[in-house]
Write a structure and sequence with these properties.
alpha+beta; 3 helices; 106 residues; 20% strand; binds FE2/S2 (inorganic) cluster; 5 strands
Length: 106
């Protein structure tokens, strides 16, 4: 099972294991990681699962689609690595992934 490290805006780390095929959002919710609200349940319509991926990891995830990009554009604290965690599936290649969480979701 791949291991994912979520880091809150204040530096608090949460290391979780999640099944391949689940989303990063589900990994956070399943393990009660604060900062991922996921109001819409993963249908790419709320933007409350915003997260940041480090540049080095972006090549290991599919590019964002237009609906995800549109939603991100309306969020606070957008950065170059901004993604919606509900749109990224856990894969074996993501073992060790670091996911940072925006202050605006706490
Ligand atoms: Fe709503 Fe990701 S959970 S957009």
């Amino acid at each position: 099972m791949p291991t994912i490290k979520f880091i809150e805006h204040n530096g608090t780390e949460h290391v979780v294991e999640e099944d391949v095929g689940r989303s990063l959002m589900q990994a956070a919710v399943d393990h009660c990681v604060p900062g991922i609200v996921a109001d819409c349940g993963g249908s790419c319509s709320c933007g409350t699962c915003h997260c940041y991926l480090d540049e080095a990891w972006l090549v290991h995830v599919p590019e964002s689609q237009s609906d995800e990009q549109s939603l991100i554009e309306g969020l606070l604290d957008v950065r170059s690595g901004s993604r919606l965690s509900c749109q990224i599936k856990v894969t074996p290649e993501l073992d060790g992934l670091v996911v940072r969480l925006p202050k605006s979701q706490f």
